[in-house]
Write a structure and sequence with these properties.
88 residues; single chain; 3 helices; mainly alpha; elongated
């Protein structure tokens, strides 16, 4: 338990940031899920449209330290590769 006033304030700040980060992480995962579902269904047009929304979402999450930047780049790369395979 926090004893000092500054530690108590830090605890409140952490709680607020946690809620914001959870919300952003959920939104990011949802956009990625829509791309994956479009890929699974084999719909390349829908996958490209969803990917256009998901890529900036992933990069912003990386910028805000919600996920690691290499993790975001890897996800973008893998999704792009899967969409490219649909064209064949």
């Amino acid at each position: 338990m926090a004893n000092t006033t500054s530690a108590k304030k830090a605890t409140r700040k952490i709680a607020r940031r946690t809620l914001i980060n959870k919300s952003r992480r959920t939104q990011m995962r949802s956009t990625v899920r829509t791309v994956e579902e479009a890929i699974k269904s084999g719909n390349r047009e829908a996958a490209l449209k969803a990917f256009a929304n998901a890529e900036p979402e992933l990069m912003q999450a990386a910028q805000r330290n919600i996920i690691h930047r290499n993790n975001a780049s890897r996800k973008v790369s893998r999704l792009a590769h899967q969409i490219a395979k649909l064209a064949k």
